[in-house]
Write a structure and sequence with these properties.
eight-stranded mixed sheet, 2 domains, 10 helices, four-stranded antiparallel sheet
């Protein structure tokens, strides 16, 4: 029993460490510029952020007046590898936690306290030094699911943070339960989570404005193993890795989301094969969606980068149980000879597949859509 418990703890510690990706300030700035007016007179909560390290806190604290915020709240988790570590936004003697204690900062006002003619992080530091009520230890762990943090969540208008990747679906479920406005960062494959896709289909969550392709660089804890391509150590010894498939997820609207995707190709049966188990075309690239086809089409999940709800209808997701729910049929009896090959590719009932000249093709996850503008 002791050995089993030790292995479980090691697994949890390893998982927690891999969840510690610290978002770069430049990526936050590029996304937030699309929503600035929506933050006026709002309470913003960053509930997965060490207030002494977080670039989310840095952005909102430095722009508190420019955004017209009502209040800024940020909380950290007690197992954060960097909390209480070497880097800090502020140099406040005796205030910064000495270990990995969870902390909370609440700011209601930022004035030109140091009389330098500008309002920014220096004034936030002044507040931390002179107002004992600004920064306080949390009673619990700082876990976003804790009763203490949920009470802070209820007080907020908008949540902005980088939640733990391994808890993304649970995190989104909580935001949905409390009907929160949010802007969070995660992996594009989160689209395929049943709980997340339901929100996307119902137009209650969509992808953000600034990231549509490529990868993004994140800072990681000092003891994080750098065994991946694209990792680096800067001149001060801080570690960074590049993560593929990163996206912003939000329910804050922005103008570009309502721009039509320009379509130029015409439908031909030869170029666009149909699935064996669902009446829909297979589309390999968003740019190849035909402009004149009115039926169902299966497109890559990255189509959602360009999704305009006035232009397209989302029917469902063609994988596993999500596919079965919208009528994707199981394998036909006459296709049993292909079943082993299909299973080799990791496919299950509910997944879309095609058979062309005896060759089985099981594409990666497909979003099933229809063009609403074709009468």
């Amino acid at each position: 029993m002791e050995k089993k418990s030790l292995n479980n703890n090691l697994h949890k510690a390893s998982k927690a460490k891999k969840d510690e990706f610290y978002t770069q300030l430049v990526d936050i700035e590029k996304e937030l510029k699309h929503y600035k007016e929506q933050f006026r007179d709002k309470v913003v909560y960053c509930n997965c952020d060490d207030p002494f390290e977080s670039n989310f806190f840095k952005y909102f604290a430095a722009n508190f007046n420019a955004l017209g915020l009502k209040k800024l709240i940020t909380t950290s988790y007690d197992k954060s590898p960097i909390a209480g570590g070497q880097l800090s936004l502020f140099d406040v003697e005796g205030l910064k936690p000495k270990g990995k204690e969870p902390f909370r900062i609440e700011i209601n006002e930022v004035s030109d306290n140091n009389a330098d003619g500008a309002v920014g992080l220096a004034d936030v530091e002044w507040l931390l030094k002179h107002d004992a009520n600004i920064a306080t230890p949390l009673k619990g762990t700082g876990d976003f699911r804790s009763e203490e943090c949920i009470e802070l969540l209820k007080e907020a208008d908008i949540v902005v943070t980088n939640p733990p990747f391994s808890l993304f679906r649970e995190y989104v479920a909580q935001l949905s339960e409390y009907e929160m406005k949010f802007l969070i960062i995660g992996n594009v494959n989160s689209i395929t989570y049943k709980e997340c896709f339901r929100l996307i289909k119902d137009n209650r969550m969509w992808l953000g404005a600034s990231i549509h392709s490529g990868d993004r660089e994140f800072r990681v804890p000092d003891d994080y193993p750098l065994d991946a391509a694209g990792s680096r150590v800067d001149s001060e010894g801080h570690k960074y890795i590049r993560v593929k498939g990163v996206r912003w997820f939000t329910n804050l609207d922005y103008e570009e989301r309502h721009e039509d995707l320009v379509l130029y190709k015409k439908y031909t049966p030869k170029e666009y094969p149909k699935y064996e188990n669902y009446d829909a075309l297979n589309i390999n690239k968003t740019s190849e969606i035909p402009k004149d086809y009115r039926g169902a089409m299966g497109v890559p999940i990255t189509f959602l980068d360009k999704f305009n709800p006035e232009q397209f209808e989302i029917i469902g997701l063609g994988i596993s149980n999500s596919g079965i729910e919208i009528g994707v049929k199981p394998y036909k009896a006459e296709h049993k000879k292909y079943r082993k090959e299909i299973q080799k590719r990791g496919a299950v009932d509910g997944d879309l597949y095609m058979i062309t000249n005896g060759i089985v093709d099981v594409p990666y996850a497909r979003v099933l859509i229809k063009n609403k503008q074709i009468k």
